[in-house]
Amino acid sequence: MIKNGRICSKALIQYNTDMYTPSQINYEITDNCFIPEYAASPLTTALSYLPEKIIDFVIESCVFISLGKEDRGEHIATDDFRFNGKKGLIILPDWLWSKDKKMMAFVVAHEVAHAYKKHGFRSFEDMDGALNIKREKATDKQAILWLSPHFKGSFEKYKYKKWQLSPPKKQR
Ligand SMILES: [Zn+2]
After folding, report:
1. In 29, 88, 125, 126, which residue has its Cα 20 to 30 A from 20's Cα atom?
2. Is 172 helix (H, G, I), strand (E, B) or coil?
């Protein structure tokens, strides 16, 4: 089923295992997603590598937003019913959906880790560079813990680099 150009494939799913399959996740997060149709399968696959209790958290608490290649823009009201009770909005770039599974899984796990660790700016004082670096390192570490059982090799090249955390240079 397609609602407003978004994927909503509420197919019949059998719940008979302890682990979530990508199609179960896809079913569960239908109302948490503002993403193009072609991103649904990559996103649910990326989420499927997370521990079950984290997937439960994602279903309960996260909203995913990704603009499609053809999208000019999108307005979502902050009181949209799909945001009800959600704790985090995870905004992902379109280029991610054409990357390899490990890259997609890492980026998604990293952003989910931010939500899981309740990162956010709750006051102006929160907007601190050192705290930000600490959070980025902690979320990278968490993502690696979650994903290590599923992927071979190092995650080094996916981790945040110092230069990505420094403030942008002033444009002249
Ligand atoms: Zn981060």
Report:
1. 88
2. coil
* Structural contact between residues 108 and 88, judged by C-beta atoms closer than 8 angstroms: no
Tokens for 151? 């992927």
Residue 90 Cα to ligand 1 midpoint, Å, equals 11
pTM (predicted TM-score): 0.83
Phi, psi of 90 (to 5 degrees): -110, 115
Report the alpha-carbon distance of residue 120 to residue 102 in Å, rounded: 26
List the domain boundaries for the chain: 2-165
User: 3-class secondary structure for 40-90?
Assistant: HHHHHHHHHCCCHHHHHHHHHHEEEECCCCCCCCCCCCCCCHHHCCCCEEE
Structure-token pair, residue 116 = 């899981």
Name the DSSP class of 36: B
Q: What is the DSSP string of 118-167?
A: T----SGGG--HHHHHHHHHHHHHHHHHHHGGG--S--GGGSPPHHHHSP
Indicate whether 162 pLDDT > 90.
no
Residues bordering ligand 1, an ion, CB closer than 5 Å: 136
57-66, 83-92, 123-132, 136-145: least confidently modelled range: 123-132
